């Protein structure tokens, strides 16, 4: 019953998007009606010169207001008719993009919108509302336009700083275009169906320093501090030669094929160039429908994954990020943008477990979260804890700390204090809280036993 009532009011709200007049017009109409009644009461001398002048001025004011309203309707109607004609004849070109990372403002996700052809009402306005992710709508907004001004312009373009709370890919299915007059009394809504998408991006922050070294050599271009053992060739055997050590002869092959071959020894290569970074989004818990885990915890984890990637990259080695899920194809300008996109669109999942995801021979750094399976983590650490750097991200820190710094504005854009309080309240009542807290504590204790592991305690 409660859901039906909520759906009904939501339906009424969405119908309200298409009402052709605004609250300004309603207030103006009410104020004009009350003013007219009051003025008529002031006509206390009928058939007098004062009454005639008063009636003349009153009629003049009414006609003047009606003319202004008529012009407002006319100019707005011209823009609406022009748009509908162009939409039917040539179609509308709508594009939405996100700027580079350097242009991201703290707490807002700027988007750039291009729309052509469209004609702004004379002295009027064009506003937009976006329908995204099938069921969500943005607020009605203006575009921040470029500084240059053109008297006659059929292109609408500019930026909008959108308050989005999740780091993910957003899909825009429909654009509602509002043509409004110079008084903003009338607002005619027309729709454009589109299939655009963009993604919000995590921002790198400093955290505990970590040490990581390549496990596998691909190019001998960068010298490393530790000498690592690597395989000599893809074929691990070669024919016996007079200068070879007879102790390396493989007698099993000789007994079978009567050929003398020796095993190629491992070599110590002081050069390596790539660090393989693994970040697991696997959840050992049933988290479906848990808003706290799916929004603030996931945002926090993505932020830390990107921060670790940039920190390792700052050591002068090329970092290769290995995703644990299928990521949609995208056209990015460089590897960093591709990695950022991969992290942004990643989600908690139950498909690929940690033991199926990690390749111990390649992995240099493995990032795990409070949702990771402790048995699988324990198994990996027992075997490779002194070779692989494990980084643990306690997800509950995203709520436990009151002073997390300005970066929280990215996670909780509008009314962030209320949002934090809401998430903390929901989390305190969640049945998952005790299970995840216990798992988090055990993972911390497990990792603190190894020198090459890091528990992220804070970011700044």
What can be said about the biggest beta sheet? Answer: 5 strands, parallel
> Termini, distance in Å?
46 Å
Helix content range:
25-40%
- Integer count of domains: 3
Number of helices: 12
Question: Biggest sheet: strands side by side, in what order?
Answer: 13-12-14-15-16
Mean pLDDT: 79
Description:
The protein is α/β, with parallel strands linked by helices and 460 residues long. The chain folds into 3 domains: 45-199, no CATH class; 232-265, no CATH class; 274-455, no CATH class. The chain has helices spanning 2-15, 23-41, 49-89, 251-257, 291-313, 335-345, 354-357, 374-384, 397-400, 408-411, 416-428, 433-447, and strands at residues 93-97, 109-116, 125-132, 136-137, 156-162, 169-180, 187-199, 223-230, 237-239, 261-263, 267-271, 274-279, 318-322, 363-369, 389-393, 454-455. α8 (374-384) packs parallel to α12 (433-447). The radius of gyration is 33 Å and the shape is elongated. It starts with a helix and ends in a 5-residue tail after the last strand.
Would you kindly provide a brief summary of this structure?
The protein has 460 residues and is an alpha/beta fold. The protein is 36% helix and 22% strand. It has three domains: 45-199, no CATH class; 232-265, no CATH class; 274-455, no CATH class.
């Amino acid at each position: 019953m409660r859901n039906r009532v909520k759906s009904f009011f939501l339906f009424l709200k969405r119908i309200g998007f298409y009402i052709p007049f605004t609250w300004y017009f309603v207030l103006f109409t009410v104020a004009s009606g009350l003013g007219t009644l009051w003025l008529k009461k002031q006509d206390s001398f009928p058939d007098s010169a004062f009454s005639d002048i008063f009636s003349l001025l009153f009629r003049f004011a009414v006609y003047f207001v009606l003319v202004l309203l008529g012009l407002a309707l006319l100019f707005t109607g011209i823009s609406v008719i022009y748009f509908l004609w162009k939409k039917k004849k040539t179609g509308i070109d709508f594009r939405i993009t996100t700027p580079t990372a350097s242009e991201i403002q703290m707490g807002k996700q700027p988007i750039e919108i291009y729309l052509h052809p469209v004609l702004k009402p004379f002295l009027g306005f064009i506003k937009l509302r976006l329908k995204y992710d099938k069921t969500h709508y943005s607020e009605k907004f203006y575009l921040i336009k470029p500084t240059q001004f053109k008297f006659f312009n059929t292109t609408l373009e500019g930026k909008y700083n959108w308050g989005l709370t999740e780091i993910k890919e957003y899909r825009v299915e429909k654009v509602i275009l509002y043509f409004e007059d110079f008084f903003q009394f009338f607002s005619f809504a027309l729709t454009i169906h589109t299939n655009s998408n963009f993604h919000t991006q995590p921002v790198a922050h400093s955290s505990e320093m970590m040490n990581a070294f390549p496990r596998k050599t691909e190019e001998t271009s960068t010298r490393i501090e530790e000498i690592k053992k690597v395989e000599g060739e893809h074929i691990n055997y070669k024919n016996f030669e007079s200068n070879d050590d007879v102790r390396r002869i493989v007698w099993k092959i000789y007994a079978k094929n009567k050929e003398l071959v020796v095993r190629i020894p491992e070599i110590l290569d002081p050069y390596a160039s790539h660090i393989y970074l693994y970040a697991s989004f696997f959840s050992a818990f049933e988290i479906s429908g848990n808003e706290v885990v799916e929004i603030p915890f996931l945002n926090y984890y993505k932020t830390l994954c990107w921060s670790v990637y940039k920190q390792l990259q700052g050591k002068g080695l090329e970092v290769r990020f290995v995703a644990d899920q299928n990521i949609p194809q995208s056209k990015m300008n460089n590897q960093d943008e591709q990695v950022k996109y991969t992290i942004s669109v990643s989600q908690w999942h139950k498909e690929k477990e940690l033991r199926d995801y990690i390749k111990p021979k390649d992995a240099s750094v493995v990032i795990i979260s409070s949702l990771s399976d402790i048995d699988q983590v324990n198994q990996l650490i027992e075997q490779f804890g002194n070779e692989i750097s494990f980084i643990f991200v306690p997800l509950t820190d995203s709520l436990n700390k009151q002073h997390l710094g300005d970066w929280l504005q990215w996670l909780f854009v509008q009314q962030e204090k209320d949002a934090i309080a809401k998430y903390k309240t929901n989390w305190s009542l969640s049945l998952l809280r005790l299970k995840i807290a216990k798992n988090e504590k055990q993972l911390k204790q497990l990792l603190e036993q190894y020198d090459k592991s890091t528990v992220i305690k804070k970011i700044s």
